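Protein chain data
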Amino acid sequence: MQSNWVNLAIAKIDADYQRSADTHLIKLDLPQLQGIDIYLKDESTHPTGSLKHRLARSLFLYSLCNGWINETTTIIESSSGSTAVSEAYFARLIGLAFIAVMPKSTAKKKIQQIEFYGGKCHFVDNSNQIYAESERLAKALNGHYMDQFTFAERATDWRGNNNIADSIFMQMQREPHPVPHWIVMSPGTGGTSATIGRYIRYQQLSTQLCVVDPENSVFYDYFHSRDKSITGTAGSKIEGIGRPRVEPSFIAGVVDEMQKIPDAASIATMQWLECLIGRKTGASTGTNLYGALQLATRMQAEGQKGSIVTLICDAGERYLDTYYNAQWIDDNIGCFKKFEAQLVEFNQTGRLNTLDC
């Protein structure tokens, strides 16, 4: 029989959801695109400021309903930051201790937010070490390792229930092209791309899913080879996306196309978007939007009309010491002027001309 504490914890999470509004769908003002509309679903407006708020809620409900969590359980998660921020929020909501295992390079603002919600940060030297250290801590503390990388794709109800895919298609209903030609998503766990891809197929929609992968990530190579043994030696410099191993939640079979996006292109596009909407976003949003602009260029060349939807994953204020710091960019990303020039040309022509990257 389910305990009273578990019932109360689920009720608290459901009440928190009931108090929350849906996230906005922003249409970009791009007159240089003829008959092609680009939209950004703004996931930065969740209570914890990112797309990962949805995932954290689902992971907690999944673990509670599976009997993995009780009133004394310490929650441990491996994360580059945003998931840990959101899980710290839900752990505090139901009165549990929370520890985030993360690389030392994680943005300072994310660390501060985890601590604001009562969580603790446990640092490792690089992203390859987060898995084993999380398992070790969970065993040592008799806690529960949430393991977003394994459970992201199964904790979310991809058939409906107001998941992110359901929300996108509901919000698009009154647009000129209500069924998107493309949805563009970057993979961290792979759970969101799995949810969107499965939903598209379940609803028998014509929309195609493009997944955009940053440098130092193995998802792109896995998509083409289907070799799950592929590993990388370095972590992604675009926080929140890209992985050095093939995560269990990444479902290649629901993806129609993948693109590999240079880190410099992500930074340039992130800054270009700020000029367009007057707000800072994270670099993963730049990755998403650069992929969307490439698809829009292709659609124009082929005489197609339609809509493209992608995501604002989180706000840029988390990255003032990294992606909005010129010295950090010089040290970690390098020059991105050729991508800036490419985007200036896009403003004039509506075409993102190919570069040698």
Residues 283-301 form the longest helix (19 residues). The two ends are 58 Å apart (CA to CA). The mean pLDDT is 95. The beta strands are 25-27, 36-42, 75-78, 98-103, 120-124, 144-145, 182-185, 208-214, 257-261, 306-312.
